[in-house]
Design brief:
Blueprint (H helix, E strand, L loop, with lengths): L4 E2 L5 E2 L1 E5 L28 H12 L5 E5 L9 H9 L6 E6 L8 H7 L3 E5 L5 H8 L4 H14 L4 E7 L8 H10 L3 E6 L18 H9 L4 E3 L10 E5 L5 E5 L12 E4 L4 E3 L8 E2 L7 H14 L6 H5 L13 H4 L2
Parallel strand pairs: 3-4, 3-12, 4-5, 5-6, 6-7, 7-8, 8-11
Antiparallel strand pairs: 1-2, 9-10, 10-11, 12-13, 13-14
Helix pairs in contact: 1-8, 2-3
GO molecular function: 4 iron, 4 sulfur cluster binding; cyclic pyranopterin monophosphate synthase activity; GTP 3',8'-cyclase activity; GTP binding; metal ion binding; S-adenosyl-L-methionine binding
Function: Catalyzes the cyclization of GTP to (8S)-3',8-cyclo-7,8-dihydroguanosine 5'-triphosphate.
Protein name: GTP 3',8-cyclase
Length: 334
Amino acid sequence: MDNRLVDKFGRVHDYLRISVTDRCNLRCVYCMPEEGMEFEPDERIMTFEEIEAVVRVLARRGVRKLRLTGGEPLVRKRLEQLVAILSAIPGIEDIALTTNGIHLAPRAEKLREAGVTRVNISLDSLRADRFALVTRGGDIRKVLAGLEASERVGFDPIKLNVVLMKGINDDEIGDFLRMTMERPLTVRFIEYMPIGHDDDGWRSRYLPLSAVLERCAELGWTAEPTEAVYGNGPSRNYRIAGARGSFGLIHPVSDHFCQTCNRLRLTADGNIKPCLYWTDEFNVRKAIGDDEAIERLFLRALDIKPENHEMAQALAREDQSHTPTTRRMSQIGG
């Protein structure tokens, strides 16, 4: 009997993204407003024991990969303890971390020892002043120290997530590509998404990722398609001739990758989200202690998971079949 988590479109789900907090020490322009965010009180955030209970159930249904996100996951106290708990669950083979890198350098070694195998570091500019502008106060020196610590302790692969924004960081495409030539990193350019935006402001910053390949050609570099770096999910991957690393293009808007989506999301306040973009959620906290009830909720979530998220329709101002979420990316976990 096939015990895997399969939706009605035949997509097998073996990957769970777990948001461990909705709080963050930065206020990136595409993720959170500068002020006015209301964070969940501690009692509404899932405990380590609750997260463990959910993962144990899903591991028996074929979930093998976990990614810890936020907010900023490293503002959650004793995160290394949670990693150790989850890495000990039978069936879990891989635990990744998505972080802004500010607190990563002093904790990288302990995270690696606890069971984190790979990291994604958000880095939208290589220029200190611009980085501070995009993040509303972030110190790029701490992020770069976190990157160096990640290389030192042996996270593999190490990916840099770059949200490409027209008029803000699109003139740094060449700088990021050059990093892949010099270091064994994967730089992933990500299209600006309309997550949690109740206005049209995101459109003014949206830039299709064809700009990356165009810039590569302008610089005289030959980029060839390459096999995906482990855990690279929806990214289309390229390597410049002679480069030590690679780069990827993630097109959630212009060329959605929903047909291969293998992930479910668990928000910090205990909601299962079958799709990042839509408002549908199922709260799992009330089912903790009843493994069958947890399974039923995830199966319900899979049953309503849409074939695709229709962000392209949002860009074109066309009608959509579902209601887009108003939750910010930091409240969902990305």
